[in-house]
Amino acid sequence: MVTVLHLFFQNADMELYINGTGIISAQGNNGDNDFLTSAPSYNTDQLLAIEPDYKDAIPPMQLRRMSKVIRMGIGASRICMKQAGAEKTDALSVGTALGCLSDTEQFLTKLIAQEEQMLTPTSFIQSTHNTVAGQIALLSGCHGHNLTYVHRGHSFEHAVINAQLYLDEHPNETVLAGGIDELTETTKNLLQAGNVYRKVNATPRDITRSNSLGTIGGEGASFFLLSGEPDTKSHLRIKDVAIFTTTDKKVALNKLNLFIEKLRIPIQEIDLVMLGINGDERNRAFYEALQGKIFSKTSQGTFKHLCGEYPTASAFGLGLISHIVTGNTIPDFVLLNHQPQKLKHILLINNHIHYYSYWHLMVYNA
């Protein structure tokens, strides 16, 4: 098999503290008290985000002109800021692989149907990838650093790395970082044709077991208020992020072993590993090696049966870990084996097709 290895970036000893988290997903949002209180139950070929009531977050006149991805981004950012007890942030760093797909499709469809005549500008204006970050900045009054990263399966990871670089130079400020992508019918059909998504319905059990070609489509928005110094709301520290691309599962395992070696802690001290298992049999060998060999004695969890597969799903995985840490409990339907005895060192291991990311997280107790 030909290996495509473009990048292996590891940022050791990061100083990023999560002070607030906002999630909008197929399981609802973490602003609700019943978020992740019951096991998921479905038999479908897609997991679409359940949107909250936006009336307190977005003015009604603006809300009716916003597409779903913009609403989700603003809603998740507001939940995040509320959880952190902050009114505004100093900078924005957003990752999205596909951007405002719905608006893009609407504009192109009308462009053809109306033969390039009498086109309304709204869909065009809101079709750019940085629209979400721009709308968040306008509504929150953030006039500072604002970047959107469009790097496919590493979009969110690059947004977090950018936040680290910014906070290195502005240690007393905060950055609102997020990952967001939406699923449209057109995109789902195209990815089903390419065998990225499966063409038949799936259940949560199908996703946690690699038993078929392809996975289930998903979407969502997850935002985090990050600081370079611990705050009274700090509960989780991002210590390290490694990213790379490969089509060879052996390379992915070798990179994981290298990542673990550089943690400078025994593997026995890893309390929880959160895995991006998505039900695609092409990833079976990789995750079976993790479950049965490398982390056989470690508590294991998984998250894509909750949110589905999409390029920035790692943001949901990080958001889930943040939710677990703040609530000090792990739902049974997240675990693949036993409950951890404690939570201090956590690994998040994810891949979207051939885009891999490894995260080392540490629970922070002020």
Describe this structure in words.
- The protein has about 375 residues and is of the alpha/beta class.
- The protein folds into 2 domains: about 10-225, Peroxisomal Thiolase, Chain A, domain 1, CATH 3.40.47.10; about 240-365, Peroxisomal Thiolase, Chain A, domain 1.
- About 35% of the residues lie in helices and about 20% in strands.
- It has 12 helices and 14 strands.
- The protein has helices at about 60-65, 70-85, 100-115, 120-125, 130-140, 155-170, 185-195, 205-210, 250-260, 285-295, 305, 315-325; strands at about 10, 15-25, 30, 45, 90-95, 145-150, 175-180, 215-220, 220-225, 235-245, 270-275, 300, 345-350, 355-365.
- The strands form 2 sheets. Strands 1, 2, 3, 5, 6, 7, 9, 10, 11, 12, 13 and 14 form a 12-stranded mixed beta sheet that branches. It has a two-stranded parallel sheet with strand order 4-8.
- α2 (about 70-85) packs across α5 and α9 runs parallel beside α10 (about 285-295).
- The radius of gyration is 20 Å and the shape is globular.
- The N and C termini lie far apart (about 50 Å).
- Residues about 1-5 have low confidence and may be disordered.
The CATH architecture of the largest domain comes to 3-Layer(aba) Sandwich
Could you give the count of β-strands?
14
Q: N-to-C terminal Cα separation, in Å?
A: 48 Å
- Tell me the count of domains: 2
Helix content: 25-40%
Radius of gyration: 20 Å
Report the principal-axis shape.
Answer: globular
CATH class of the largest domain: Alpha Beta
State mean pLDDT (0 to 100 scale): 93
- Percent of residues in β-strands: 15-25%
**Can you tell me the residue ranges where pLDDT is under 50 for at least 5 consecutive residues?**
1-7
Order of helix and strand elements from N to C terminus = EEEEHHEHHHEHEHHEEEHEHEHHEE
Secondary-structure content class: alpha/beta
CATH level-3 fold name of the largest domain: Peroxisomal Thiolase, Chain A, domain 1
Q: CATH superfamily of the largest domain, called what?
A: Thiolase/Chalcone synthase
Separate helix tally:
12
